[in-house]
């Protein structure tokens, strides 16, 4: 490990941040305390650290069950968005001030749900990636840049529980207490490497983030569905997934707590060739058997629906492909495009190593594949740059990768009739 990769102290010497410097604040649960929080935030100075705790794996969706804020001169505030679901008062108090987030895409959507919208932000995780850090979790970043150790044992607890235990609140307060110093250290590192402008472009791009694109047929993401090889079996998966999702949403619990993916896949495999609906279903695996037994009536109805569907209403074995084919098939389908892709990857990987920036941050692999499969026959650097911008690439990405892509195309020109 080089000195640049060494944290302030060796791991055994790192001081554990066990408690917030100012103690654990009371949780804001009413309008009076919320107004007090907004006034304090407005009176503070500089950027404001924000975080949100969800109940992934416990509740339906990705809603916030605790919002943490800290600003110099304002202190730390822990807000219960269940008791106070409208935080527009706090949003107005923050105004144009910079947000500090770690892994912004995880929190922006649930913060927007309660009325919090950034005008500018700094993502310490993304900044760490651009700075070349091999580990960018909050704990690892704090160790490297600040020389402290964060306890992370409460990261996966059920934050929808009430009342929230004091150890959980201590953990939540510490997560925002370190963000200000971490932001400054990461910014200094990026500036020293000449990358702070790149980071600013990425952070500005995040301001428009509203969540991942909705999936077509999200039920196809069920774990184990790849083992189901018949359209009738896929219909069973689809009906079970839909019914489970409806129940989970109604109960406000994680779908996996209603019926695990493994149970859905097992039931589809077991009954995909049945000629009549089963009278009962089960499993030899005790955990799955319990879930199936609890939902016996719903499961039987879903399987019956799938088995009784006419052939033309069964889902296809796979969805129509809308983008470039998988790269492994390029050599057979278009050897020139395959050669371009291989060369472009090689050139970008070399620059990635030189700049110490992950390849996927220089340019998303999907954008590269789409361009090289659908792009013009012999593009100039300017043409590549124009098309990359139109596809959403940031200017710093365009500046670095457009000449490399043009070079790869020049080395492997396409011969087209016309």
UniProtKB/TrEMBL annotation:
In this protein, which residues make up the domain named HRDC? 230-313
Origin: domain of life: Bacteria
A biological process (GO) of this protein is: nucleobase-containing compound metabolic process
Which CDD domains does the annotation name? RNaseD_exo
Q: Which InterPro entries match?
A: 3'-5'_exonuclease_dom, Exo_C, HRDC-like_sf, HRDC_dom, HRDC_dom_sf, RNase_D-like, RNaseH-like_sf, RNaseH_sf
Q: Where is this region: Disordered?
A: 269-288
Q: Which GO terms describe its molecular function?
A: 3'-5' exonuclease activity; nucleic acid binding; nucleotide binding
Name of the protein this chain belongs to: Membrane protein
Organism of this sequence: Intrasporangium chromatireducens Q5-1
């Amino acid at each position: 490990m080089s000195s640049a990769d060494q944290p302030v102290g060796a791991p055994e010497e790192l001081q554990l941040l066990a408690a917030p410097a100012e103690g654990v604040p009371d949780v804001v649960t009413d309008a009076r305390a919320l107004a007090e929080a907004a006034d304090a935030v407005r009176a503070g100075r500089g950027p404001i650290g924000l975080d949100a705790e969800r109940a992934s794996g416990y509740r339906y969706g990705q809603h916030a069950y605790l919002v943490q804020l800290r600003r110099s001169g304002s202190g730390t505030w822990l807000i219960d968005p269940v008791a106070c679901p409208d935080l527009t008062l706090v949003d107005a108090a923050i105004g144009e001030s910079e947000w500090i987030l770690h892994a912004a895409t995880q929190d922006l959507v649930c913060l927007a749900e309660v009325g919090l919208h950034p005008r500018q932000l700094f993502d310490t995780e993304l900044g760490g990636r651009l700075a070349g850090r091999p580990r960018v979790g909050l704990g690892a970043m704090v160790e490297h840049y600040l020389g402290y150790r964060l306890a992370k044992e409460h990261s996966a607890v059920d934050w929808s529980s009430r009342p929230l235990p004091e150890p959980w609140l201590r953990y939540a307060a510490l997560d925002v207490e370190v963000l200000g110093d971490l932001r400054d250290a990461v910014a200094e590192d990026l500036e020293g490497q000449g990358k702070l402008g790149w980071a600013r472009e990425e952070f500005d791009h995040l301001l428009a983030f509203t969540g991942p694109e909705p999936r077509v047929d999200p039920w196809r993401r069920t774990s184990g569905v790849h083992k189901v090889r018949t359209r009738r079996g896929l219909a069973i998966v689809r009906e079970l997934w839909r019914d489970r999702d409806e129940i989970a949403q109604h109960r406000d619990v994680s779908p996996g707590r209603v019926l695990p993916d493994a149970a859905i896949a097992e039931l589809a495999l077991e009954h995909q060739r049945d000629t009549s609906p089963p009278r009962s279903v089960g499993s030899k695996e005790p955990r799955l058997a319990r879930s199936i037994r609890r939902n016996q009536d719903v499961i039987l109805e879903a399987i019956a629906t799938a088995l009784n569907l006419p052939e033309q209403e069964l889902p296809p074995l796979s969805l129509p492909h809308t983008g470039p084919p998988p790269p492994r098939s390029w050599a057979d389908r278009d050897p020139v495009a395959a050669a371009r892709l291989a060369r472009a990857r090689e050139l970008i990987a070399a620059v990635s190593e030189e700049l110490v920036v992950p390849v996927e941050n220089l340019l998303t692999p999907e954008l590269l594949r789409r361009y090289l499969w659908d792009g013009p026959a012999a593009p100039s650097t300017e043409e590549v740059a124009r098309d990359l911008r139109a596809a959403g690439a940031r200017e710093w990405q365009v500046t670095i990768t457009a000449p490399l892509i043009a070079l790869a195309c020049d080395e492997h020109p396409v011969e087209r009739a016309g």
